Amino acid sequence: MDTSEFQKDVKRTMNPEVVGIEVLKMAAMKIAEEGGEFNGVVAKWQYQGHELDYDRAVDELVDILFYVTVALDWLGWELDGALERNMEKRAERYPNGFEAERSINR
Fold first, then answer.
1. pTM above 0.85, yes or no
2. Which residues of the chain have pLDDT under 50?
3. Which residues pair with residue 95 across a beta bridge?
4. How far is residue 97 CA from its own chain's centroid?
5. CA 85 to CA 38: how far, in whole Å?
6. Neighbours of 27 (CB within 10 A)
7. Rounded distance, CA 52 to CA 45, Å?
8. d(CA 106, CA 93)
9. How far is CA 17 from the centre of its chain?
10. What gap in Å lies between CA 68 and CA 35, rounded to an integer?
11. Domains and CATH numbers, the chain
């Protein structure tokens, strides 16, 4: 699967009753919600004696990606383009890979 196929499927499975600016607002809230659910998986593992639930962790991360894709789409961006933009930014910021000095003094 490629990212454009994923983005098309995201559009297909969005609630059609959520329109306009409400799409972006809902995406923002759901990104925070799903991030909290991912945090919960990690917290249970780190602080409550649970085994790390890899499947649930992946599910929550992909739910975040779903809503990030919703927001990008509303903003007029294809997921591919946004990923390329991020790669270009990181290539400029860290041309030789991560360096703490470049991170501190950017």
1. yes
2. none
3. 97
4. 22
5. 26
6. 22
7. 5
8. 8
9. 23
10. 11
11. 3-77 (1.10.287)
